[in-house]
Design brief:
This protein has helices at residues 8-44, 61-89. The protein has 103 residues and is mainly α. The chain has one domain (8-91). Helix 1 runs antiparallel to helix 2 (61-89). The radius of gyration is 20 Å and the shape is rod-shaped. It starts with 7 loop residues before the first helix and ends in a 14-residue tail after the last helix.
Length: 103
């Protein structure tokens, strides 16, 4: 393919959206790790031998879940567009399990 045939605009859209999606996924993973950390912290402080227990701290969980839902909604919106440009540009589509229906 010659330079005259390369559609840099299409490639740019694919790259831009891919980077945005991967950034959202990293943010989502961070929120999920925070929730997992809160759960592990509660579970690890349980001691049957000393009768020491810790109540689960729900404090940041609702905000984290709202953030994850917001990110999921953004991914649902961006994924089909990115995959469209990836197909035109000859790039790789991004597949997110559970969002397959939005491709």
């Amino acid at each position: 393919m010659s330079d005259d045939q390369i559609n840099y605009e299409v490639i740019g859209r694919d790259v831009y959206l891919s980077k945005k999606i991967h950034s959202l996924i990293r943010s989502r993973q961070s929120e999920l790790k925070g929730i997992a950390g809160a759960i592990n912290e509660t579970c690890l402080t349980y001691s049957r031998l000393t009768n020491e227990y810790r109540l689960f701290n729900y404090g940041n969980i609702p905000v984290a879940i709202e953030t994850i839902q917001s990110i999921d909604n953004q991914l649902k919106e961006l994924l089909p567009e990115q995959n469209k440009w990836a197909k035109i540009a000859g790039g790789e589509p991004i597949i997110i399990e559970g969002l397959n229906d939005v491709r």
